[in-house]
Amino acid sequence: MEIRLGGVGGQGIALAGTLLGKAAALYDGKEAVFTQTYGPEARGGASRADIIISDSAIAYPFVTRPHVLVVLFQEAYEKFRAQLEPGGLMIIEDELVNPRADETALVRLAATKIAQELGNRLAANIVMLGYLIGATKVVSHRAMQEAIRATVNERHLELDMRALDAGFQLAAEAGGD
Amino acid sequence: MEIRLGGVGGQGIALAGTLLGKAAALYDGKEAVFTQTYGPEARGGASRADIIISDSAIAYPFVTRPHVLVVLFQEAYEKFRAQLEPGGLMIIEDELVNPRADETALVRLAATKIAQELGNRLAANIVMLGYLIGATKVVSHRAMQEAIRATVNERHLELDMRALDAGFQLAAEAGGD
């Protein structure tokens, strides 16, 4: 499964990508490749992380047609929307992305608002991750908890766990996709 | 320029790769791609980061024949040594890697020992980075300082800056390659 996360500097896109890779490979026994591209857009603040997760070795480790596209910023939405695999899952941050009127299918997630209610809007990336794994089952809830525990600063641990659960729960309520 | 960093979990390979990518793209105006592969070897503790740095857009963002190979662990040395581009630069961690007797050219850097003398052996990755950029000039000293400042925990900042300078200085003394 190919996943692309797009946003802007400071939204924790790279961290979210790292967590997906770790959860898949270290705790769920899968293969994963995480790629971060820094280019002129990075200097403008844009941030993008690509993750491929597979049950077997990954021969071509590049995301070309993501099955899942998560965008936390308008520019990332505009740039990547056309690349989504037909029938793929698009999740947008509701406050920060205004989708086109003709967009056929997407999930609008109030990740920033939820994170803010939990205590810090910077945890929006983790709310998104929770929803993503709840909807796709690409990694297990438990593996993601382990990855977060092994990675994030202890100060943020409790908040991130609650943010993960909030996103995961919303996906469950939405019926799992 | 294609760079591969290989080591074992806890040596800060992923951080070193991230710092190279950030220094190149955010502070030196270049393009960069950073890829981390998680596979069965990751569960065994192995860690690998690939970085490509270029003055122009990177079409094929995969490291196949690194121009620079930095290895901080025996297993990484054994696995990657044959992939080094002919005439490329190999840097090994002197305490942790025993090179083959027939190895034609490499730099043995006592990165762990130097880091320990500076206060924490965990800064060996930054000593390595300092040497790498001093020897190759792939990113500027100043860009790497900015990347470190923007990335590492404040608690480690002073140590990391000294570790960077120590590696950089050794490369300058060695004649810059």
Defining key terms:
homodimer; 177 residues; alpha/beta; 6-stranded mixed sheet; 20% strand
How would you sum up this structure, described in words?
In chain A, helix 5 packs across helix 7 (154-173). The model of chain A has no long low-confidence stretch (mean pLDDT 91). The first copy, chain A, contains 7 helices and 6 strands. Chain A has 177 residues and is of the alpha/beta class. The first copy, chain A, has a 6-stranded mixed sheet, sandwiched between helices. Chain A has helices at residues 13-27, 40-43, 74-80, 111-118, 124-136, 141-151, 154-173; strands at 2-8, 31-38, 46-54, 68-71, 89-93, 107-109. The A-B interface holds A 14, 18, 21-22, 24-26, 29, 31-40, 42-43, 57-58, 61-62 and B 14, 18, 21-22, 24-26, 29, 31-40, 42-43, 57-58, 61-62.
Helical content of chain A stands at 40-55%
Determine Rg of chain A (CA atoms, Å): 15 Å
Structural class estimated from helices and strands of chain A? alpha/beta
Please indicate the percent range of residues of chain A in DSSP E strands (runs of 2 or more): 15-25%
- Taken in chain order, the helices and strands of chain A follow as EHEHEEHEEHHHH
First and last CA, distance of chain A: 15 Å
- Give the oligomer, counting copies of the same chain as homo and different chains as hetero: homodimer
Give the SSE map.
Two copies of one chain form a homodimer.
Chain A: E1 2-8, H1 13-27, E2 31-38, H2 40-43, E3 46-54, E4 68-71, H3 74-80, E5 89-93, E6 107-109, H4 111-118, H5 124-136, H6 141-151, H7 154-173
Parallel strand pairs in A: 1-4, 4-5, 5-6
Antiparallel strand pairs in A: 1-3, 2-3
Helix pairs in contact in A: 1-6, 4-5, 4-7, 5-7, 6-7
